[in-house]
Structure formats: structure tokens, C-alpha cells
Write a structure and sequence with these properties.
One of its GO terms (molecular function) is uroporphyrinogen decarboxylase activity. By secondary structure, this protein is an alpha/beta fold. It contains 15 helices and nine strands. It has one domain: TIM Barrel. Helix 4 (about 50-65) packs parallel to helix 7. The radius of gyration is 19 Å and the shape is globular. The structure holds coproporphyrinogen I (1CP). Coproporphyrinogen I (1CP) binds next to strand 3.
Length: about 350
């Protein structure tokens, strides 16, 4: 995989064009996803290696992207620790037994790697199907983001209960975060052992935090996880919503790549990072709703800005929305793949 565009760019080597993959590429914007989803529940899909492989391969076969991402979810660590997880259409993820008291935290298990073995099995099936064509990215949720789902019991707009725990019960919050971080490091190491070619840590809701709180309750645990990875020779990508603000701090955790949201000029932020640290990003996913000339123009503008830069992976600033037209995503990938520096 060392010679793949994605791995080369992740390690800041020269490439003839930027590699492309998109967060949430294995998902609901594809009619073919629904053909599978209509027959199985989301968790069944995650836990059945052949099905997880089928979904992982959809964007590989239909979009011809430069990296595949494991089909799973960031919340499987919370489930393995004892969360009663379900996914309901139009509601999203739910933990029926939210974690809000000291007793709830004490009850969470950390010795849970056996419960996540199905992910290692899926990775092996996916790698057989990929057959060396492109790299496979594994992933996990960052402790703060996973904590927010455990505490709120599901999605949240304002993270009220989570922030209340950080502010009123910081010692309790740290115990919870430390438990999640321990499981997350072991979980990513399981994925590396099973054969993924890169890992990405998703801290999707970090932007809700004030700078000091981000530092104390999020960054610190990501740093700990990255330090505990048995990295072998694979790149580590750190993503958060809010990276346009937090990237210089994220860099201190020493990932190989930082995935940047769309609020910032990508070159400006790259220039503020240590030499040799790659960036991934950062098209506003809403551009993919627009007309094709707009999509092409925005991609070309980003690429012109990044011209001559080593260490640039094209991605969106966050995941593809489920109602973005498939044709537009396919067109964007074509525009990117035709481009030459
Ligand atoms: O009902 C369905 O069809 C399930 C929808 C779905 C899908 C396709 C969920 C529920 N998760 C996923 C897959 C998924 N989730 C992947 C697969 C690989 C890919 O294509 O990228 C990944 C990487 C995730 C990670 C994930 N899950 C994140 C981090 C990434 C991000 O977009 O910020 C988050 C925050 C989640 C939680 C989650 N799981 C599912 C939903 C609908 C949500 C978000 C709900 C919310 O807004 O809180």
C-alpha cells in the first residue's frame, strides 16, 4: 500500500494529484445502500462481516475512490462497554441506559475487546475483497464525542448534560473519558492488527467545547490514544469539527494527518502546522447539492490553492449528507481524478 496515492499523501510524499475519499461515503446517499438496509438493521449490517464488506465496497465499485473506509459506527465502543444501543430511522442512535451517575460509570466495562471481534472479522473479509487495490481506513470515535452519546442517551443539539458533567463533575467526567480512551486505543489496535492501512479518530462534536475544555476533556485523551497505538507503518488521521480552531493543538497529539472542517482556508491552516503534517479536507459538503459547474469550480479553486503542496488528501469538511444526489458525488470524484498538478 506504500505506493498508493492515499498513503503517499498521508505521509507527505509527492503525488500527481490529490487522492480522494469522502467521510460517510459508505452510506445513505447511495440507492444501493438502501437495497441492503431495507433487509437488515444497521447493527446487523455492522456485525455481519459479509454485509459490512458489501457496504464498504459500494463506494469502491460505484465511485472508484482512492481509499475505502470500514463500514461500522463510532458508537460500537460504547455498546461494547455496556451501552444498550439501537439505531432508529429518522431518530438516529440511542443509548437506552444513559451514563449519568458515578454508579453508571462504574458499571461500564473496559475489558471488552472480545465483543468487538466482529470488526476484526469484517476487516479481513474487506481486505480479501479489496485485494490490494486501495487502502482500507479503520476508525473510532474520540472519547468526548462517544461520551456525549453515552451521557445524552443519543444525539444532541447543545450537549447540555455532557457539558454539565464536565463543569459540575469533572472528576467523574475524567473517569468516563479515561475508560472510553482505554477501550478506544485497544479497539484501534485490534483494527490495525486485523489489517487496516490507516486509522481515523472522529471527534465530530468537539466544536461544542470552549478552548480550555477541549484541551482538558478531549485533546488530552486523543493524545493518550495516539500515544498508545501500535502504529506499525500506517498513518493516523485526526478529525474534528472545529479543527479550523483546534488544529494547532491537535497537532501536538502527533497524528500524521489532520482532517480540517470547511471554515478555514486549507493552505493557511496547513502553514500553521508542523512541517510534514498532512491535511485532509475541506470542501463544504453542501457544495455537493449545487450544480455541476459550481462543484467543479469549488474543487478546482481548492486544488489551485493547494498546488505544489505535499501532504494533501481531498475530503469534505464533514460527512456526506444522506440526501445529496449520488450523481453529484460521482461527478466530484471524476473531476478530482482528472485533475493533475
Ligand atoms: O439508518 C442508517 O442507515 C444508519 C445510518 C448510519 C450510517 C450509514 C449511521 C448511524 N452510521 C453510519 C455509518 C458510519 N458512521 C460510518 C461508516 C463509514 C463511512 O462511510 O464513513 C462512519 C465513519 C460513521 C461515524 C459516525 N457515526 C460519526 C462520526 C462521523 C461524522 O459524520 O461526524 C458519528 C457522529 C456517528 C453517529 C451516528 N451514527 C449514525 C448516525 C445517523 C449518527 C449521527 C447522528 C447525530 O447527528 O448525532
Amino acid at each position: 500500500m506504500k505506493d498508493s496515492l492515499f498513503i503517499k499523501a498521508a505521509f507527505s510524499a509527492q503525488t500527481e494529484r490529490p487522492p480522494v475519499w469522502m467521510m460517510r461515503q459508505a452510506g445513505r446517499f447511495m440507492p444501493e445502500y438502501w437495497e441492503i438496509k431495507n433487509k437488515y438493521s444497521f447493527l446487523e449490517m455492522c456485525k455481519t462481516p459479509e454485509l459490512a464488506a458489501d457496504v464498504t465496497m459500494l463506494p469502491v465499485n460505484l465511485l472508484d475512490i482512492d481509499a475505502a473506509i470500514l463500514f461500522s459506527d463510532i458508537l460500537v465502543t460504547g455498546e461494547a462497554m455496556g451501552g444498550d444501543l439501537s439505531f432508529t430511522q429518522n431518530v438516529g442512535p440511542r443509548f437506552a441506559n444513559p451514563v449519568r451517575t458515578q454508579a453508571d460509570i462504574d458499571n461500564l466495562n473496559v475489558d471488552v475487546i472480545d465483543k468487538l471481534q466482529y470488526v476484526a472479522d469484517a476487516i479481513k473479509v474487506i481486505q480479501q475483497r479489496l485485494n490490494g487495490k486501495i487502502p482500507l481506513i479503520g476508525f473510532a470515535g474520540a472519547p468526548f464525542t462517544v461520551m456525549s452519546y453515552l451521557v445524552e442517551g443519543g444525539s444532541s443539539k447543545d450537549f447540555k448534560l455532557t457539558k454539565l458533567m464536565l463543569h459540575n463533575e469533572p472528576a467523574m467526567a475524567h473517569q468516563l473519558l479515561a475508560k472510553i480512551a482505554k477501550v478506544t486505543a485497544a479497539y484501534l489496535n485490534l483494527q490495525i492488527e486485523a489489517g487496516v492501512n490507516a486509522v481515523q479518530i472522529f471527534d465530530s462534536w468537539a466544536q461544542a467545547l470552549a478552548w480550555d475544555d477541549y484541551k482538558e476533556f478531549s485533546h488530552r485523551y486523543i493524545q493518550e490514544i495516539i500515544a498508545n497505538l501500535d502504529r506499525k507503518d500506517i498513518p493516523v488521521i485526526s478529525f474534528c469539527k472545529g479543527s479550523s480552531v483546534f488544529a494547532p493543538l491537535m497537532a501536538e497529539a502527533k497524528p500524521d494527518v489532520i482532517s480540517i472542517d470547511w471554515n478555514v482556508d486549507l493552505l493557511d491552516i496547513k502553514n500553521r502546522l508542523p512541517q510534514g503534517m498532512a491535511v485532509q479536507g475541506n470542501l463544504d459538503p453542501h457544495v455537493l447539492y449545487a450544480g455541476k459547474p459550481v462543484i467543479k469550480d469549488r474543487i478546482h479553486k481548492l486544488f489551485e490553492r493547494m498546488r505544489g503542496e505535499k501532504g494533501f488528501i481531498f475530503n469534505l469538511g464533514h460527512g456526506i449528507m444522506p440526501d445529496i444526489p449520488f450523481d453529484n458525488v460521482k461527478y466530484a470524484v471524476e473531476v478530482i481524478k482528472e485533475y493533475r498538478y
